[in-house]
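Hi there,

I know you've been waiting on this one. I reran it after we fixed the sequence typo, so this is the corrected version. Both the input and the resulting structure follow.
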Amino acid sequence: MTGLTGFLGPAYLWVKAAHVTFVIFWMAGLFLLPRFYVYHQETAIGSPEDRAWIEREARVRSIILTPAMIIVWLLGLMLAFHLDAWGEGWFSAKLALVVCLTAYQGWLGVYGKKLADGQRPLSGKAVRMINEIPGIAAAIIVVLVIVKPF
């Protein structure tokens, strides 16, 4: 079994399994929140429905997105050190995409605050398009990690 000789030793596979699990949680949140924004934008500003969306979105950010992202980063860095992946091209590309997903999550937080303040800067169609970003990034990351094309 490859990977069992680094600093994690036999815990490597457990850390890897936990990393993949929390990536799934993180991605679920990254798919869910923009979909909530699509529905939220269609509500009347200040209405009970508007306030309900604000609360739902805050819960997704605080209960799912932020904890999952932090755990993904911690476990992912542990795996990177364990495998000494820093000089690998596939890993550099994956890391860049994870940084972009983290920035995307930050942008989602800023956009949510705008919605909560009654602003609707993007169209529903634009938010629907933005919702595709994590799926595309995830597909590329999976190829990078499994195929290791470079």
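Quick highlight: The longest helix spans residues 48-83.

Best,
R. S.
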